[in-house]
Amino acid sequence: MSDGTMGAVELAAAVRSGARSARAVTEEALAAVAARDDELHCFLRVLGDEALEQADAVDAAVARGQDPGPLAGVPVGLKDNLCTRGIPTTCASRILDGWRPPYDATVVRMLRQAGAIAVGKTNMDEFAMGSSTENSAFGPTRNPHGRDRVPGGSSGGSAAAVAAGFTPIGLGSDTGGSIRQPAALCGVVGMKPTYGRVSRYGLVAFASSLDQIGPFATTVEDAALLFDVIAGHDPLDSTSLPYPSPPTFESTGAGSEGVRVGVCTDLIDGCAPDVVARVREAADALSAAGAKVEEIRIPELAYGLSAYYLIAPAEASSNLARYDGVRYGLRVDAEDAAAMNTATRTAGFGAEVKRRIMLGTYALSAGYYDAYYAQAQRVRTLVLEAFARAYASCDVLLGATAPTTAFALGEKVDDPMAMYMNDVCTIPSNLAGHPALSVPFGTGGDGLPIGVQVLAPALAEGLLFQVARVVEAAAPSPTRGAGQ
Amino acid sequence: MTWEMVIGLEVHCELASATKLFCGCRNAFGDEPNTNICPICLGLPGSLPVLNAQAVELAMRIGTALHCEIRPSSFARKNYFYPDQAKDYQISQYDEPLNAGGWLELPDGFRVGVTRAHMEEDTGKLTHVGEGGRINSAHHALVDYNRSGVPLVEIVSEPDMRSSAQARDYAAELRGILMATGASDGRMEEGSMRVDANVSLRPAGTTAFGTRCEIKNLNSLRSLGRAIEYEAARQMALLESGERVDQETRHWDEAAGRTEPMRSKEEANDYRYFPEPDLVPLVPDAAWQERVRAAMGPMPADRRAALSALFGDTALGAQADQIRAVVDLGLDTMVEQAVGAGVPAALALARAANELAAEGDRGRALPIGSFVTLVEMEAKGELSATQAKAVLRAAVADVERDPRQLAREMGFEALGADTLATAVADVIAAHPDEWARYMSGEDKLAGYFINEVMTATANKANGKEVAAELRRLRD
Amino acid sequence: MSEGTEPGHHARRTPGKLSPEEVVHVAALARLALTDAEVELFTAQLRTVLDHAADVAALDLSHLAPTAHPLPVANALRPDEPRPSLDREEVLAAAPSVEDNRFRVPRIGAPAP
Questions:
Q1: Which of A452, B83, B105, B224 has the least CB density, counted as fewest CB within 10 Å?
Q2: What would the CATH number be for the domain defined by C16-58?
Q3: Which residues of C35-72 are buried (b: 16+ CB within 10 A; e: fewer)?
């Protein structure tokens, strides 16, 4: 198994030059999944024939001398909340079991145009609600670095597939940390773009004002390559930024000379000592590389978690109303339409989804709107203003991604609040719509990966990748190729 | 005690855009079920709405015509479960409507306040199957989502109206405005314009509002008037007997001629509005507003004034009604052009308001030129009134045909003096040699010319008159 | 206008301790059925989350405008041009129940709220 250690950049170069065929690369990826995914359960569905067909198209383009695209022949895992035409898209929920979208998500279309090969739909927490991938209706994913550990979530399947070497890159969605937290727990790079950079068209909504699709990769460079492919204006998404996304892959080398880095104590306090230590070491590495590092306090971020757990469930309660048994997906029949809706939803949704729907319904219901939802939206303003003050004196911020290394399967499933605390460091960027990235940086005392989070202001993805490369270069031990 | 009616109307108007409010599906009435549907209007997972620029423009025209302030606005979600609602929420403008604070002037000069005119999407169409198709007893229901996502503007009036006649006038005038702006075809029978009425009573001379009921399912102006009268009588009976009126929504049963309470679930009224996160604010700048204003034609009130001006100060009561009818039906341009061509205004107005109006949509389709020709013929005495009406009906039935031709075929046309002179002149021009000989004294050629004119006019000319005309021209 | 459609300010209630009755009410609004055990469990769990949110609810943020969108984008519009609709057969094939080219549902019983 060699492709697992070969990055997307190298792989695409090999395919583009004809040195390797996309079919051979794809067959290897499919073989690896077939051999080892029973144990990890990264994939809800493997796309064998479809992937090989796409690989043959890439090889044919190469043979004709046409440009097969920047991700030619690179296998990719798609989180199962990304719509794929004719291919089941379940969001790991019984309520969508068997549903085949009649259209492709914009990112899926862009990946295909770039020559990437979708080898499967990856596991996730049901409707992206969770931080461990244990809320999948189809069983949890295991962490390739420790089978008794969670991979994080909600995009645990895509993260674990990259960590396991099944695919060099993957796509996830990040509403409160659902890309960065599993990236940290699985020892891979995961990035949430600026809100509006990547089209949400075809991403099954969890919380519309927070959701962003973003890349997983083994290296920052690969993440930047994938980001460039999926970023850009999409007229099908009203919240898509109405201007082009400048390329980050070719224009940003590693470098932090003169960059002002704020080590945000509010994104470190309360984290496990190992995690705090790795963030401090990463800051030292940046300082050694010429960055101006100083500590910064942004106490307003502490309100982020509460605001998030009002806003996201509120939007979700509305976004998930459509699963009513009328037009698609599960139906449990009953004597009248309302009873049918209730029977369907009661049978089709898992406990965490029900919990959040109820929380959100309550936050929006008559009388409580101002106290909860509107107040949470004001906290959003508070967080935005606090970030703006911080970015007056810093170019980027540094903090932890997750408070701990990967926790044990089953450890937090019965304690929602403990599970929600996993997102405490990642949520502020979602509330602000800012880009942020988790880059692996050594391990904890338990030998499990730790991620360091780099945060940047809106639209500063180029700077984010640039600084992340410095952190990556200084990381104490490679965590790549886990599970081999 | 004397009671005063207090009436406010909520009018839903389907916009006449080519596509739906948030997707590119066709906005069409009467197509095969579920043929104009896509991921967006079907509420499929992952789909997102994108606002239709033309729908916004039409909504701004409505706001402009109703003297509203056009403001920065946004959309919200109104959450409730119902099978005709593809997403189980409706995207609607809530606390930030596009148009607010305007008024509508009735033909008698009374102004009704317009609280707001906001944009929202329509639902799909439900058919109840079994047990007479009634909602409470049907066996099951079927959903067609062709109408799902069709753009609507909801126009909410202030509770300024005091009689059912005033409410009807308001609805009729609003309909005229909606049609004049091009925002809607105004067809109540197809649901393009749907009216709900809020009705309450209060003791005459007091200012506090009584408890109101909202009446739905008013599919015609006639229903509107009847329902308000019924509801006011119902409420009065309650109040006079010392009972109170419950605030509720009631359904107008046209066949039974009464309103009935609509029972809905206890949970029903908690719509959990919140800002629609999939859409961004709609902020029409001054330049856009000005473009919309500049592109708008005259409104019904302006057009009535223009027609009245043709009568000077002499427009009588009957003519005022005719003017209103002609403008409501969009026939005023025909009248204006006929008057421009020299036809007496009263005649042109009467033919448009009576005969043409009676033809409905077909009347509107008559080419303006045909109408002008017809009333000209009548004005010149070439057709009697009875004949003119008959030819008008024939012309409406076949708009391709020339009314003169039709009149001839119907055997109605007598040649007027002008027409005869024209026919003689045409024949002379065609036979210059013969004319020169006649002019030089060959009298017998008069017979030749009379013969030619009779042929040219299909024997409609009077031979003696032709001879007289020939002599007049020679002498 | 029924009360629920009245635009303007939401009536403001001071959040107290979430009751099991409120959980049942909210579940009904969301079209979810809960067992008694679930009502008890969810009441406790949601209380924990709402207790945590009490710090936010208590803040005086009246000087701040709510943020609905993180980035200032406005007037995202599309031209009024028809685009192809979906194939009806494909759409109806995904539906749980179909009759006469329409989506079939059990009787509805009550008018739309």
A1: B105
A2: 1.10.20.60
A3: eeebeebbbebbeebbeebeebbebebeebebbbbbbe
